[in-house]
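The authors assume throughout that readers already know how a fold can be written as C-alpha coordinates. For illustration, here is how one protein appears when written out as sequence plus C-alpha coordinates.
>
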Amino acid sequence: MRRRDFITATTGTTAAVVAPVLSSRPTVVGTSDVIRLRSGLHALTTLDNSRGGHEGLEQAALAGARNALDKQKLAASQRIRRRLFSVAADYTATAAWSAIDAHRLGLAQRHLDRALYLAGMAKDPVVEICVWNAYAMLARQRGEHTQAVASGYAAQATAVTRRDPLFASLAHARTAIGHSNLGDRQAALRSLGYAEETLAKASSAQPRPSWVAFYGTAELTAITAIVRYGTGDFAEAEAASHRALSGIPVQFRRNRALATSQLALAQLHQREIDQACATAETVFGLMSGSPIPGRMRSRLGDFYRDLITLAPDTTVAQEWGDRYRSEWSRL
Protein backbone atom coordinates (compact mmCIF):
# COMPACT_ATOMS: atom_id res chain seq x y z
CA MET A 1 0.00 0.00 0.00
CA ARG A 2 1.34 3.46 -0.86
CA ARG A 3 2.19 5.72 2.11
CA ARG A 4 -0.36 8.34 0.98
CA ASP A 5 -3.10 5.73 0.84
CA PHE A 6 -2.09 4.31 4.22
CA ILE A 7 -2.33 7.65 5.97
CA THR A 8 -5.75 8.35 4.47
CA ALA A 9 -7.04 4.91 5.41
CA THR A 10 -5.80 4.89 8.98
CA THR A 11 -7.02 8.33 9.95
CA GLY A 12 -10.53 7.59 8.69
CA THR A 13 -13.03 10.35 9.41
CA THR A 14 -10.29 12.42 11.02
CA ALA A 15 -8.79 13.11 7.63
CA ALA A 16 -12.06 14.64 6.55
CA VAL A 17 -12.02 16.96 9.55
CA VAL A 18 -8.41 18.03 9.20
CA ALA A 19 -8.33 18.32 5.40
CA PRO A 20 -10.44 21.48 5.08
CA VAL A 21 -8.22 23.16 7.63
CA LEU A 22 -5.07 22.26 5.75
CA SER A 23 -6.41 23.54 2.44
CA SER A 24 -7.34 27.07 3.57
CA ARG A 25 -5.21 29.93 2.22
CA PRO A 26 -6.23 33.20 3.94
CA THR A 27 -4.50 36.43 3.00
CA VAL A 28 -4.28 37.41 6.69
CA VAL A 29 -4.42 34.90 9.51
CA GLY A 30 -6.55 35.88 12.50
CA THR A 31 -8.45 34.38 15.42
CA SER A 32 -10.98 32.51 13.29
CA ASP A 33 -8.16 30.77 11.42
CA VAL A 34 -6.54 29.70 14.68
CA ILE A 35 -9.86 28.27 15.85
CA ARG A 36 -10.22 26.30 12.60
CA LEU A 37 -6.70 24.96 12.97
CA ARG A 38 -7.46 23.83 16.52
CA SER A 39 -10.62 22.01 15.45
CA GLY A 40 -8.55 19.23 13.91
CA LEU A 41 -6.89 18.51 17.26
CA HIS A 42 -10.15 17.38 18.82
CA ALA A 43 -10.76 14.91 16.00
CA LEU A 44 -7.28 13.43 16.43
CA THR A 45 -7.76 13.12 20.19
CA THR A 46 -11.08 11.34 19.69
CA LEU A 47 -9.43 8.86 17.31
CA ASP A 48 -6.60 8.26 19.77
CA ASN A 49 -8.99 7.60 22.66
CA SER A 50 -10.68 4.84 20.69
CA ARG A 51 -7.96 3.27 18.57
CA GLY A 52 -4.68 4.39 20.12
CA GLY A 53 -1.53 5.69 18.49
CA HIS A 54 -0.63 4.75 14.92
CA GLU A 55 1.32 6.17 12.00
CA GLY A 56 -1.65 7.72 10.22
CA LEU A 57 -2.59 9.74 13.30
CA GLU A 58 1.02 10.81 13.80
CA GLN A 59 1.37 12.00 10.21
CA ALA A 60 -1.93 13.89 10.30
CA ALA A 61 -0.78 15.66 13.48
CA LEU A 62 2.56 16.61 11.91
CA ALA A 63 0.72 17.99 8.87
CA GLY A 64 -1.38 20.14 11.19
CA ALA A 65 1.76 21.46 12.87
CA ARG A 66 3.35 22.32 9.53
CA ASN A 67 0.23 24.16 8.45
CA ALA A 68 0.18 26.25 11.62
CA LEU A 69 3.83 27.17 11.19
CA ASP A 70 3.35 27.98 7.50
CA LYS A 71 0.80 30.61 8.52
CA GLN A 72 3.25 32.46 10.76
CA LYS A 73 4.22 34.94 8.07
CA LEU A 74 0.54 35.73 7.48
CA ALA A 75 -0.34 36.38 11.13
CA ALA A 76 -2.27 39.59 11.77
CA SER A 77 -0.44 40.31 15.04
CA GLN A 78 2.20 39.04 17.45
CA ARG A 79 -0.59 37.62 19.62
CA ILE A 80 -1.85 35.54 16.69
CA ARG A 81 1.70 34.45 15.95
CA ARG A 82 2.08 33.10 19.50
CA ARG A 83 -1.25 31.31 19.20
CA LEU A 84 -0.06 29.68 16.00
CA PHE A 85 3.06 28.48 17.80
CA SER A 86 0.76 27.05 20.46
CA VAL A 87 -1.33 25.20 17.86
CA ALA A 88 1.83 23.85 16.21
CA ALA A 89 3.11 22.70 19.61
CA ASP A 90 -0.21 20.97 20.35
CA TYR A 91 -0.17 19.13 17.03
CA THR A 92 3.47 18.11 17.51
CA ALA A 93 2.77 16.88 21.03
CA THR A 94 -0.13 14.86 19.59
CA ALA A 95 2.24 13.29 17.07
CA ALA A 96 4.66 12.52 19.90
CA TRP A 97 1.95 10.90 21.99
CA SER A 98 0.84 8.78 19.03
CA ALA A 99 4.42 7.60 18.59
CA ILE A 100 4.69 6.76 22.32
CA ASP A 101 1.47 4.75 22.24
CA ALA A 102 2.67 2.96 19.09
CA HIS A 103 5.99 2.26 20.88
CA ARG A 104 8.00 4.22 18.29
CA LEU A 105 10.19 5.71 20.98
CA GLY A 106 12.96 7.34 18.94
CA LEU A 107 10.43 9.29 16.88
CA ALA A 108 8.54 10.22 20.03
CA GLN A 109 11.66 11.75 21.57
CA ARG A 110 12.27 13.94 18.52
CA HIS A 111 8.66 15.09 18.39
CA LEU A 112 8.66 15.94 22.11
CA ASP A 113 11.87 17.96 21.83
CA ARG A 114 10.29 19.94 18.99
CA ALA A 115 6.98 20.36 20.84
CA LEU A 116 8.73 21.72 23.94
CA TYR A 117 10.58 24.29 21.81
CA LEU A 118 7.34 25.39 20.14
CA ALA A 119 5.53 25.58 23.49
CA GLY A 120 8.30 27.86 24.73
CA MET A 121 7.92 30.08 21.70
CA ALA A 122 4.19 30.22 22.39
CA LYS A 123 4.68 30.86 26.12
CA ASP A 124 1.95 28.27 26.65
CA PRO A 125 2.21 26.39 29.98
CA VAL A 126 -0.73 24.11 29.12
CA VAL A 127 1.16 22.67 26.16
CA GLU A 128 4.31 22.52 28.30
CA ILE A 129 2.64 20.27 30.86
CA CYS A 130 1.25 18.13 28.05
CA VAL A 131 4.80 17.64 26.78
CA TRP A 132 6.30 16.90 30.23
CA ASN A 133 3.49 14.43 30.88
CA ALA A 134 4.44 12.65 27.65
CA TYR A 135 8.16 12.80 28.53
CA ALA A 136 7.38 10.98 31.79
CA MET A 137 5.49 8.27 29.92
CA LEU A 138 8.26 7.92 27.35
CA ALA A 139 10.88 7.56 30.10
CA ARG A 140 8.78 4.87 31.77
CA GLN A 141 8.61 2.86 28.55
CA ARG A 142 12.37 3.12 28.21
CA GLY A 143 12.92 2.00 31.80
CA GLU A 144 14.50 5.37 32.61
CA HIS A 145 12.65 5.80 35.89
CA THR A 146 14.87 8.54 37.32
CA GLN A 147 14.15 10.56 34.18
CA ALA A 148 10.44 9.82 34.57
CA VAL A 149 10.50 11.31 38.08
CA ALA A 150 12.41 14.35 36.82
CA SER A 151 9.81 14.84 34.07
CA GLY A 152 7.06 14.61 36.66
CA TYR A 153 8.70 17.34 38.71
CA ALA A 154 9.12 19.48 35.58
CA ALA A 155 5.39 19.08 34.94
CA GLN A 156 4.67 20.16 38.52
CA ALA A 157 6.74 23.31 37.96
CA THR A 158 4.73 24.57 34.98
CA ALA A 159 2.68 27.69 35.61
CA VAL A 160 -0.67 26.05 34.83
CA THR A 161 -0.46 23.79 37.92
CA ARG A 162 -0.77 26.88 40.14
CA ARG A 163 -4.10 27.89 38.65
CA ASP A 164 -5.67 24.52 37.81
CA PRO A 165 -5.48 21.68 40.37
CA LEU A 166 -6.37 19.07 37.75
CA PHE A 167 -3.07 19.61 35.94
CA ALA A 168 -1.22 19.62 39.28
CA SER A 169 -2.85 16.28 40.10
CA LEU A 170 -1.79 14.76 36.78
CA ALA A 171 1.81 15.90 37.36
CA HIS A 172 1.88 14.35 40.85
CA ALA A 173 0.38 11.13 39.48
CA ARG A 174 3.11 10.78 36.86
CA THR A 175 5.73 11.42 39.53
CA ALA A 176 4.18 8.69 41.71
CA ILE A 177 4.56 6.13 38.91
CA GLY A 178 8.23 7.03 38.52
CA HIS A 179 8.90 6.68 42.25
CA SER A 180 7.13 3.31 42.38
CA ASN A 181 9.24 1.97 39.51
CA LEU A 182 12.36 3.11 41.37
CA GLY A 183 11.21 1.10 44.38
CA ASP A 184 10.67 4.18 46.56
CA ARG A 185 7.36 3.20 48.15
CA GLN A 186 7.17 6.13 50.55
CA ALA A 187 7.75 8.75 47.85
CA ALA A 188 5.32 7.01 45.49
CA LEU A 189 2.49 6.97 48.02
CA ARG A 190 3.24 10.55 49.04
CA SER A 191 2.99 11.75 45.42
CA LEU A 192 -0.17 9.70 44.97
CA GLY A 193 -1.65 11.41 48.02
CA TYR A 194 -0.83 14.83 46.55
CA ALA A 195 -2.50 13.78 43.30
CA GLU A 196 -5.68 12.79 45.15
CA GLU A 197 -5.73 15.98 47.25
CA THR A 198 -5.29 18.33 44.31
CA LEU A 199 -7.78 16.50 42.10
CA ALA A 200 -10.41 16.95 44.81
CA LYS A 201 -9.98 20.72 44.40
CA ALA A 202 -10.41 20.72 40.59
CA SER A 203 -13.53 22.13 38.99
CA SER A 204 -15.16 20.14 36.19
CA ALA A 205 -16.59 23.40 34.80
CA GLN A 206 -13.17 24.87 33.97
CA PRO A 207 -12.43 24.83 30.21
CA ARG A 208 -9.50 22.63 29.23
CA PRO A 209 -8.03 21.20 26.00
CA SER A 210 -9.42 17.89 24.77
CA TRP A 211 -6.17 15.98 25.29
CA VAL A 212 -6.61 16.06 29.08
CA ALA A 213 -10.25 14.90 29.03
CA PHE A 214 -9.07 11.37 29.87
CA TYR A 215 -7.89 12.46 33.32
CA GLY A 216 -10.20 12.41 36.31
CA THR A 217 -11.07 10.24 39.28
CA ALA A 218 -11.28 7.01 37.26
CA GLU A 219 -7.95 7.58 35.49
CA LEU A 220 -6.23 8.49 38.76
CA THR A 221 -7.57 5.25 40.20
CA ALA A 222 -6.07 3.39 37.22
CA ILE A 223 -2.75 5.12 37.94
CA THR A 224 -3.13 4.12 41.60
CA ALA A 225 -3.30 0.52 40.40
CA ILE A 226 -0.04 0.99 38.49
CA VAL A 227 1.67 2.58 41.50
CA ARG A 228 0.43 -0.11 43.90
CA TYR A 229 1.57 -2.81 41.49
CA GLY A 230 4.99 -1.17 41.29
CA THR A 231 5.29 -1.12 45.08
CA GLY A 232 4.33 -4.78 45.33
CA ASP A 233 0.89 -4.18 46.85
CA PHE A 234 -0.88 -6.54 44.47
CA ALA A 235 -4.19 -6.86 46.31
CA GLU A 236 -4.51 -3.07 46.49
CA ALA A 237 -3.57 -2.87 42.79
CA GLU A 238 -6.32 -5.34 41.91
CA ALA A 239 -8.92 -3.45 43.92
CA ALA A 240 -7.90 -0.14 42.32
CA SER A 241 -8.12 -1.67 38.84
CA HIS A 242 -11.67 -2.86 39.48
CA ARG A 243 -12.67 0.63 40.70
CA ALA A 244 -11.04 2.25 37.68
CA LEU A 245 -12.86 -0.01 35.22
CA SER A 246 -16.17 0.85 36.83
CA GLY A 247 -15.54 4.52 36.10
CA ILE A 248 -13.53 4.88 32.86
CA PRO A 249 -16.01 6.04 30.17
CA VAL A 250 -16.66 3.57 27.36
CA GLN A 251 -15.36 5.97 24.71
CA PHE A 252 -11.87 5.65 26.20
CA ARG A 253 -11.56 2.16 24.79
CA ARG A 254 -7.76 2.06 24.77
CA ASN A 255 -7.56 3.22 28.41
CA ARG A 256 -10.09 0.59 29.47
CA ALA A 257 -8.02 -2.08 27.74
CA LEU A 258 -4.85 -0.88 29.49
CA ALA A 259 -6.58 -0.90 32.87
CA THR A 260 -7.79 -4.44 32.14
CA SER A 261 -4.26 -5.60 31.36
CA GLN A 262 -3.07 -4.00 34.61
CA LEU A 263 -5.79 -5.89 36.49
CA ALA A 264 -4.60 -9.14 34.91
CA LEU A 265 -1.03 -8.47 36.08
CA ALA A 266 -2.19 -7.83 39.65
CA GLN A 267 -4.22 -11.05 39.64
CA LEU A 268 -1.30 -13.01 38.19
CA HIS A 269 1.08 -11.90 40.94
CA GLN A 270 -1.42 -13.09 43.53
CA ARG A 271 -1.23 -16.51 41.83
CA GLU A 272 -4.82 -16.23 40.56
CA ILE A 273 -3.66 -17.86 37.34
CA ASP A 274 -7.01 -18.85 35.80
CA GLN A 275 -8.62 -15.52 36.57
CA ALA A 276 -5.61 -13.55 35.35
CA CYS A 277 -5.60 -15.34 32.00
CA ALA A 278 -9.34 -14.80 31.57
CA THR A 279 -8.95 -11.11 32.37
CA ALA A 280 -6.00 -10.66 30.00
CA GLU A 281 -7.91 -12.35 27.18
CA THR A 282 -10.69 -9.75 27.37
CA VAL A 283 -8.19 -7.12 26.19
CA PHE A 284 -8.36 -8.64 22.70
CA GLY A 285 -12.12 -8.27 22.69
CA LEU A 286 -11.97 -4.67 23.91
CA MET A 287 -9.67 -3.74 21.03
CA SER A 288 -11.50 -5.82 18.44
CA GLY A 289 -11.56 -4.17 15.03
CA SER A 290 -8.35 -2.17 15.55
CA PRO A 291 -4.69 -3.14 15.70
CA ILE A 292 -3.47 -3.21 19.31
CA PRO A 293 -1.10 -0.24 19.88
CA GLY A 294 2.54 -1.03 20.61
CA ARG A 295 2.39 0.19 24.21
CA MET A 296 -0.45 -2.23 24.96
CA ARG A 297 1.29 -5.04 23.13
CA SER A 298 4.29 -4.43 25.39
CA ARG A 299 2.03 -4.64 28.48
CA LEU A 300 0.59 -7.94 27.24
CA GLY A 301 4.12 -9.13 26.60
CA ASP A 302 4.94 -8.38 30.24
CA PHE A 303 1.92 -10.45 31.27
CA TYR A 304 2.97 -13.41 29.11
CA ARG A 305 6.56 -13.26 30.35
CA ASP A 306 5.43 -13.30 33.98
CA LEU A 307 2.85 -15.99 33.26
CA ILE A 308 5.36 -18.46 31.89
CA THR A 309 7.69 -17.62 34.80
CA LEU A 310 5.08 -18.16 37.52
CA ALA A 311 3.02 -20.98 35.97
CA PRO A 312 4.94 -22.44 33.02
CA ASP A 313 3.39 -25.92 33.05
CA THR A 314 -0.29 -25.13 33.61
CA THR A 315 -2.81 -25.88 30.88
CA VAL A 316 -4.41 -22.44 31.13
CA ALA A 317 -1.04 -20.76 30.65
CA GLN A 318 -0.33 -22.83 27.56
CA GLU A 319 -3.79 -22.07 26.15
CA TRP A 320 -3.38 -18.37 26.81
CA GLY A 321 0.04 -18.45 25.17
CA ASP A 322 -1.52 -19.96 22.04
CA ARG A 323 -4.13 -17.19 21.95
CA TYR A 324 -1.47 -14.55 22.54
CA ARG A 325 0.69 -15.79 19.67
CA SER A 326 -2.34 -16.01 17.40
CA GLU A 327 -3.38 -12.43 18.17
CA TRP A 328 0.21 -11.21 17.87
CA SER A 329 0.57 -12.69 14.36
CA ARG A 330 -2.72 -11.05 13.32
CA LEU A 331 -1.74 -7.53 14.44
